[in-house]
Automatic annotation (TrEMBL):
SMART domains named among the record's database cross-references: S_TKc (SM00220)
Binding residue positions for ATP: 86
The name this protein goes by in its record: Protein kinase domain-containing protein
Low complexity: compositionally biased ranges: 356-366
Broad class of the protein's primary localization: membrane
Organism: Helianthus annuus
Keywords, alphabetical: ATP-binding, Glycoprotein, Kinase, Membrane, Nucleotide-binding, Phosphoprotein, Receptor, Repeat, Serine/threonine-protein kinase, Signal, Transferase, Transmembrane, Transmembrane helix
Domain Protein kinase: 58-334
């Protein structure tokens, strides 16, 4: 993996792979998190003035995204190449850790369904990541967005997106060494290139997962609606947490609607609950997006069932990503007899409410909650069971 030389104000903790643990001293109140030197292999070190020129001094018209840790701008480099420039807010301590973590995880891995990180800038207090620009934006802005979208999301396009994301996750979970858990698979982190090839983005929360471990106990990080129940409640992270998130995303892509929408009647607000109810009633076809051209209803319903398999409450019975890939390609039989109740968002919210009513405090105790990060219309939380409402799209 990539090697780093960093200064966090205190001694850094070496990782098993020989790099620096970007999570070291995460909870220290007086840690100096400024980076004096960050040396990554296979990464270009950009000068701030070049990125400033590429975005016309980061003018508002160049901004294409806004997150809790900073902004994303479209830029054109001197050689004419278009890039996406992610600028970290100087005030964000949590974001700096995500910045280092993102470079650690993906600087030396390459796959057609993962975003390409070209390089970074660490001049003075500037912390910037430079990616290849993807002209068709993210799924939450296009497929699930409420505004005008010029993309025709036919069934073939959606099928390509589902399979592409599954390929990317299979690579992270089973092929790259050591394995990687993304921890924030969601519509706003799936970007599309000009050919509608999906790219998994934003690896700031990703965890390296050694093969000999069954799970990692860690702080909860992810987005409401996509969080697996065992992870949201107990902080036990395995690859099955990503698979749960992918299952929710699969349901969103087929149905063309976000995982939560409070504008709908109460019984229809939570997508996963609605899919499960209609599955039990034998009416899954009602969830297939009617705006699609030439949709294969049978295949679309099979994809919804695969989404239900991925979101089952018990992680051990969720399929692996390689099995999901085979089912999506119709290379493996989908055994509905194995399908059990999903882990539902409404139940997690109820659990959180009951816990707060009982203890009078959040499950993160007296500690201050970590910063939360907004992407598009969702909110990412970094404290135990800290949920916020998803804005309707």
């Amino acid at each position: 993996m990539t090697k780093f030389s960093c200064c966090f104000g205190k001694a850094t903790t070496p990782t098993p792979t020989g790099g620096v643990n970007p999570r070291a001293n995460n909870h220290g109140s007086n840690v100096d998190v400024s980076i004096e030197l960050l040396d990554a292999e296979n990464m270009r070190l950009y000068k701030y003035r070049d990125l400033q020129a590429a975005t016309a001094n980061f003018r508002p018209e160049s901004k294409i995204g806004q997150g809790g840790f900073g902004s994303v701008y479209k830029g054109v480099l001197r050689d004419g190449s278009e890039v996406a420039i992610k600028v970290l807010s100087a005030e964000s301590r949590q974001g700096l850790r995500e910045f280092v973590n993102e470079i650690t995880v993906i600087s030396d891995i390459h796959h057609e369904n993962l975003v390409k990180l070209h390089g970074y800038c660490v001049e003075k207090d500037h912390r910037i990541l430079v990616y290849g620009y993807l002209k068709n934006g993210s799924l939450d802005q296009t497929l699930l967005g409420s505004g005008y979208c010029s993309i025709s999301f036919t069934w073939e396009v959606r099928r390509k997106i589902c399979i592409g994301v599954a390929k990317g996750l299979t690579y992270l979970h089973e092929e790259v060494q050591p394995h990687i858990i993304h921890r924030d698979i969601k519509a706003s982190n799936i970007l599309l290139d000009e050919d509608y090839t999906p790219k998994i983005s934003d690896f700031g929360l990703a965890k390296i997962f050694p093969a000999h471990l069954t799970h990692v106990s860690t702080r909860i990080a992810g987005t409401q609606g996509y969080l697996a129940p065992e992870y949201a409640i107990r902080g036990q992270l395995t690859r099955k947490a990503d698979i749960y998130s992918f299952g929710v995303l699969l349901l969103e892509i087929v149905s063309g609607r976000p995982n939560q929408n409070r504008r709908l009647p109460v019984e229809e607000q939570y997508l996963l609950e609605r899919v499960w109810h209609l599955y039990r009633e034998g009416e899954l076809e009602r969830l297939v997006d009617t705006s699609m051209e030439d949709v294969d209803i049978d295949e679309a319903c099979r994809y919804l069932k695969i989404g239900l398999l991925c979101t089952q409450s018990l992680p051990k019975i969720r399929p692996s990503m390689s099995a999901v890939m085979k089912m999506l390609n119709n290379e493996m039989e989908l055994n509905e007899k194995d399908l059990t109740d999903p882990g539902l968002l409404s139940e997690l919210v109820t659990y959180k409410t009951m816990k707060n009513n009982t203890s009078g405090t959040s499950s993160s105790g007296s500690r201050k909650p970590d910063e939360s990060q907004s992407y598009g219309n969702t909110t990412t939380s970094y404290a135990n069971m800290t949920f916020t409402t998803i804005t309707e799209r």
